[in-house]
Amino acid sequence: MSFENYFPLWNDLNTAQKKLISDNLITQEVKKGTIIHNGNLDCTGLLLVKSGQLRTYILSDEGREITLYRLFDMDMCLLSASCIIRSIQFEVTIEAEKDTDLWIIPAEIYKGIMKDSAPVANYTNELMATRFSDVMWLIEQIMWKSLDKRVASFLLEETSIEETNELKITHETIANHLGSHREVITRMLRYFQGEGLVKLSRGKITILDSKRLKTLQRS
């Protein structure tokens, strides 16, 4: 499908606005591991994922990462155009978790249309509210959920995304998603293995008991 089919506001734009976007739209094909947006060093623009998977995360002064949210087919990200919203004061990094095809509406183009279009402005506010809810959910998880529950939730989420119980993922990657240390995640996974929940092998985690992981997640 074309950009017009993916962009939810296309029919709310006038002819001039549609032409402005079409004339300036950037198409990118990025490989897994590519950094698409790097904090305040970039004002990339509005991202719209055609296919693939992106990860948005923040980085501490000590170099620890924590995932804020992920983007999948037809998802949009506005934090990559944070320069158009002055109230956004924190830096995020956006990385391709898989080979990804995406469109980018340059920040200045989107900003100009947002000023002139009430539907675009309203949708932008809704999008920001959704991402704010994602971040608040994450804070709640960090503050009130123990690490074993967070690891269980992450493993279950991964099996849903990848549609398999055999996850090709490292302990370091899980630590980066959860804002923890690799050694801590390794100890937790070994505990899970001892309880018969998972099986560990080099670069792979096999889920053996999804039902008990779900029980742990909810407990």
From TrEMBL:
Residues 145-211 form the HTH crp-type domain. The keyword Transcription applies. Keywords: DNA-binding, Transcription, Transcription regulation. InterPro entries: cNMP-bd_dom, cNMP-bd_dom_sf, HTH_CRP, RmlC-like_jellyroll, WH-like_DNA-bd_sf, WH_DNA-bd_sf. CDD domains: CAP_ED (cd00038). Pfam families: cNMP_binding, HTH_Crp_2. This is Crp/Fnr family transcriptional regulator.
